[in-house]
Amino acid sequence: MPPSERAEESAVQIGALVPLTRPGWVEAGRHLLAGLELAVRDVNEAGGIVGRPLELVVRDTAADPQRAAAAVDELARLGVAALAGEYHSVVARAASARADALGLPFLCSSAVLDALTEQPTEWVARLSPPQSHGWQIYADFLLSAGHSRIAVAAVSSVYWAAGVRILRDYLAPRGGTVIELDLHALAPTAVCDELVDNRATALLLLVGYPEPAVSIVKSVRHDERLAEIMIGAPAGQPEFAEWATLLGDDSAAIPFLRYLPERLTPLGARVETALRERLAEAPSFVAFEGYDTVAVLADVLRSHGADRARIAESWPQVAVKGTRGQIQFSRTPGISVWQWASPPIQVVDRDPADPQRFRIIHAS
What we know:
Layout: H1 3-10, E1 12-18, H2 26-45, E2 54-60, H3 65-78, E3 82-85, H4 89-102, E4 106-108, E5 124-126, H5 131-144, E6 149-154, H6 158-171, E7 177-182, H7 188-197, E8 202-206, H8 213-221, E9 230-232, H9 241-247, E10 256-258, H10 266-279, H11 285-304, H12 308-313, E11 320-321, E12 326-327, E13 329-330, E14 338-340, E15 346-351, E16 354-363
Parallel strand pairs: 1-2, 1-3, 3-4, 4-5, 5-14, 6-7, 6-8, 8-9
Antiparallel strand pairs: 10-15, 11-12, 13-14, 15-16
């Protein structure tokens, strides 16, 4: 057998689920994959998994739950030790269900939907904070900024519906009102009329990207009646460079959730430099999530081997220094998967004086 085939045979494989084509959020997928690949390179340069190389087997989910579920089936047949990745919550939910059914460990990088599985599972763990936690912090920010009449421009989705419910349940007892605008019935210009009629002081974009998010922002920004309204995007649409490219000055002062600490760990600072070189732009928090995913799985594989059941049993023993802090998993009430107990959460926006620069305006 040629040496190249022996090396391939001896590699420890991780299946990577990443949105790389539309309608997936391609820019998020590119950053996620950059983080995953950089971490694999670092692991292999440090000796691999007890002398065996670590290898990614990448599959494009394209934000399609059925495609993701089929990819999980394929990767399981190919013999990967575990799954990593995914950005879109509804896709991660489909992947989690298949991973649970097949007994395949899945470390979800960047999807926040609380209910990734219908029932509690031992097979799935997650790095990003649950939506209920992050969006409550965002609601706190809204209240502290003086917003009590909050309109949400929402499209039909399990993820967006969960966001509306979290906001309403948290804000109502604290004097806040959530006004839901159905984008299936309203054009972007009609959204402006609804905001005026409802005396809203804030509009949250619970919609797809780039459209209709970009068109709504342009309509609101250029309506003189709405000069004082705050636009927000808790799901993070303004995180990526394309947002500033598409909207220019209109891209600024739109607060969103970002999962970074005020200061990266020493590892994080080194990884940031390498990611910037790899991406040719500033890395998003999603790239760090990708790196941390492989860092955790590599640690587990070194300690427990590539047996799937042993990997899943190891989640509560994980203690890994990641790019954004110490990573440990625990059971969180109402969350069906193993959850990183304390991921960092910030509310940030793009600086109106320089839309390429981010400002931290609220933190957990």
